[in-house]
Amino acid sequence: MTPREPLVSNTKCDCGHQNPVGTVLCEACGKPQDEKELGAEGNLEMRYDGVARRSQRIRQGVIDRIWNFFSSVKIAVYLIVITLLGSMLGTIFPQESTFLNIDASTYYKEMYGTAGNIYYRLGLSHTYESWWFITLLVMIGASLVICSLDRVLPLYKALTRQKVRKHRQFLTRQKVVLVSPLEADPEAWVAALSEPLKKRGYRVKTEGSALLAEKHRFSRWGPYVIHIGLIIFLLAVLARGLPGLNMDQHLAFPQGEAARIPETTYYLKNEQFTVEFYSDEEMPEEFRGKKVLPKLYETQAVLYECTADCTDPAREPVLAEVARHDIRVNSPLSYKGLKAYQFDYDLTPVLRSVQPELVNSLTGEAYGKFKLDMRNPERTFQTGPYTLSLKEKYMDFGLNEEGRPVSKSPYPNAPAFLFLITGPGLPGEGQQYFYFPKQVDKEQFQQQAINERLGGSGRFLELEVQDMSDVDFAASTSYLNIRIDRAMPFVWTGAGIVMLGLVLGFYWQHRRIWLRVEDRELVLGGHTNKNWFGFRREIAAVLNKVDLIVDEKSLDNGGGLA
Amino acid sequence: MSLLDFSSDVFIIAFFLYSGAFMLFTIAIMGRRWSGRKPEEHTARWGKAAFIASSLGLLCHLAYFITRWMGSGHIPVSNMYEFMTFLSMMIMVAFTVIFAIYRTIILGVFAVPVSIIVMAYAAVFPQEVQPLIPSLKSIYLNIHVTLAALGESFFAVGFAAGLMYLLRTVNFDSTARSDRKQQRLVEFTLFSIIVIIGFLGSVFAFRGAGYESVFVRSNVTIDSSGQGDSTIEKVSYKMPPIVAPYQSETEVFQPFLGITKPLFEAPSWMNGVNAGRKFNTVIWSLLSGLILYTMLRLIVRRLLGKAIHPVLDGIDENDLDEITYRAIAIGFPIFTLGALIFAMIWAQIAWGRFWGWDPKEVWALVTWLFYSAYLHLRLARGWQGRRSAWLAVLGFLVVMFTLIGVNLVIAGLHSYAGTD
Amino acid sequence: MGKARKPVQIVILFLILLLGGYAIGTSVFGGDGKPQEGSKAPSYELLGLDGLTHTLDEYKGQPVVLNFWGSWCGPCVKEMPALQAQYEKWKEQGVVVVGVNVGEDRLTVENFVKQVDIHFPVVMDTGRDAVRSYGVSPLPTTFFINAKGRVDSIHIGQLELDTLDVQIGKLVDP
Prior knowledge:
heterotrimer, B: three-stranded antiparallel sheet, C: alpha/beta, 7 strands
């Protein structure tokens, strides 16, 4: 910005104050320090009160260059604009992260044609995780830190060491100016003016016939408070990625069983999942019979913590209930930083166990029932005089290309069990028996025919479920999003500080009025960082109290620096 | 009469009161030369009447809002109709606040119509009360949406003042190159506004006439296992189809001005039947906007900007510049709180992540970044006045895209806002 | 302040470089924690068919072929003979083949092992913990882990006898 300064330059103001290199307006009296500026007309540049910013001082070396680069507001605006444009690009097509299971390398080409392919190849399908976008955010972070540091300390110094009596040119080149003849005794007049100023909340300092009135200085710190908040926010976001601070998984919880939450010692049980839809009466007439609107998704959840035998896969864990909550959208379960959110659901019932009874189909005699679990069933069962040993188990029964029975998936969609039964009336080596617990499968896979082939015609034993109470199944499955995010308090703190800074900076204005009465002439200059209109009105009202009638508008000394 | 009926009646009254206020504001400004009174006296008198009318309108609007809330059992900001009516109300609130500070009568001539247009746009959407889906059942619906809309409304007032600044300061008599450029840009801005009016006009005209044509398209998708799956999509056009959806068949075609079949078919990259319908709407809007613009040009026989320019005579441009900046400065913290911070809090509670780069979220961020750039640029010399006014105009375009464009063009998590 | 300025600047720029580098680094090198070629193979603690709990650390200093499979997955069944053959071939040189069954119960696994006649150690990942820590999505997926405990290569899909031989050869003699 400023050309290279000579190593030694005269930076002493006429008022006797020694200013640092790069000072625009004397730190003490406000006289313009630049020869060119001194001869110029128009409004003074009042940014940072004309003090030298750190970066404006003698420049040398790489460190200073980098520092100066990031301390420039111009660069900051460029960074903001580039980030803005980059963010826009990311919304042209959906980001990869919006899909759970796609092969991005083919998906974009298939869905969006050539444009999609180019989009993918440019890496825009993951814009917000790309190195250049993160780099932009890091640079914005750097700019926030350095810009603030570079300005806030000098500004603080300038505002805490203000002199009351300022150079005449400093006053007449403000944006609010009044030069008016004044017959009254200077000191008495200044003292009289102090009263209405104080009433309006100004802190008034006088020095003979000179006066400085100032209010809401804290408003000047607003922007820096915002920047501090943003830095905390960005650091918190960065910290989220640290191992151990963040966990995010989508898990299925079949109704009625406690399922372990991986990477934690917690277990969660979905006691009851409910989905409700709006009835026709609750819907507007136009929708009736046409649209289905969901009303409620709710998982009645219980959270357990494992207290013993947690990691040993060979033993059953010991659980203790720690929390209970009806999880809905907008109402997650929360326990010590672990949160469970309603994410999705599946109303397909999942079979858990059946209790079939062994019956003699010839005599009708029943030998008693046993519990057959779909997962980890017992291997042998004793009912009456018969022993059933489980030989094979298929969760999703089907036949492969060679016609051999296989399981098509690990899910109990069509469970099938092969038993070897031994006991009275059966061949010595026993009799094989295929059992399909689900009625549909019995028919589809022809259980009767299979068993006839396996056991021959003299078969008389059947497994039958007598009552629906002997069937245990999960009526539905609720999918929950389990999260831990230990950095969140810092994210909110950052956001809160940003908000505080915004309110300070935008809803109050730092207003200052300088005036000096000399040679029967009043010279008044005023400065505010925002809302000149209100400021002029206030000055006019204050002057009115000491019977100096001025038009608000006439105080305007031109210039558009609002 | 039920609460909801009362609500829609009082809404219509608000609409007419705003329109009346707009006319009164216009008379207050335009009439000052030939009223016979002193211009200041005329403006003050009519301006007062106009402000009373707009305030009454706002009261009616508020009554609509409260009774609809009571009648439906939830805050009426849950779909596009409700949101747009709320936004127009907030624009009037923002206008009233700024007007109370600056007492600039002419602001009414530009800010009130913005609200009226948004209000008319709301009427494009289905108006019935819908019950809330689970994800909207939250106190943050109330806080997030209302604050975001209020912040955006101040940006809308900033837009109106910025446009006024441009109309006031651009030299419409000059033929210098830079001035010509400015004239053309202002004219383009005005034309864009007229296209929006054209869109509204054609929607309501064809709706009034009960126009409808229907297209069907069967989609055959082949899944990974090689099984074909065919679905039939149906789309109903409420405007005469100039463009039919890509590879679709006509089911019902209501002739219009002797046209009995669509003139063109949408290009193949416009996926889905709705893309064709939206494209058709865009064509109609441009067409009617163009007709409207040509008619206006024929009446005034010069650039519209040049025709409006004298209206702003005698208005201090620095005041306009300050109003623009002030409106944005008041709106910015509210926008930050509503559209970003409360949005993040809600997203954290509903979805478990405070930020997910959803298109709506990204565009809220884009808006925020845009106005932060604006606020930083205000510090620099040479960025007050003209450039700053252009930024205020452009910024509102970004706001509108965030509110409407994202829902129309990009689908995302916010698509339940019910755009049509 | 004057004298402290330079050190302050250096410290701040260094911090920015450090944090920024970390941020960019994690974004470029995939901070999702899933093992990639060259990264350390995550440990596991799973119940074996022998009824004992097994970990990866048991095979410290030995190359390990970690194969994730399910009895219902066709390609998994087909590649088993190849795995068994290579297990026999490379056993002498300290190569360990470990089959990780994904989410099935003991009976199914036992029957399967018997049916396809494999003799290398098999562990059962009933809670899908190893699946998660290894970031496995389709089955079968095979991780070739070298003697230093780092992932040498990852094979997704069915293994073939000869390519498997080459890959194990690379593990033993890089």
